[in-house]
Amino acid sequence: AYDLCLDVLVEVHDERELSAAVAIGSRIIGVNNRNLSTFDVSLDVSKRLGRLAPSDTILIAESGLTHRDELLELQELGYSGFLIGETLMRSGDPQTTLENWV
Length: 102
Known about the structure:
- The chain has a single domain, classed as Aldolase class I (TIM Barrel, Alpha-Beta Barrel), CATH 3.20.20.
- α1 links the parallel β1 (9-12) and β2 (28-32).
- It is of the alpha/beta class.
- The chain has helices at 15-23, 44-52, 68-76, 86-90, 94-101, and strands at residues 9-12, 28-32, 58-62, 79-83.
- A 4-stranded parallel beta sheet has the order 1-2-3-4.
């Protein structure tokens, strides 16, 4: 991908996956807060892994984001992007929901 001038987002959910992503030189890491085995969601995953990631990593928090305060908290931990789907899809007015977050 890098030879084609493309960036790669590597998704992780735990410490082992984060270590593997860092070991292969991943520069953009998406931290999925949803356990894909149980579908449970916990922002503690992003909080925990964000503290362990190298400071030059571009971190993206994925899943389980429901309020602006969560974005601000994760931003303080080094996250620069957020994948928000379910909250917007379940909102009666996704545009207003998103506008209230920014």
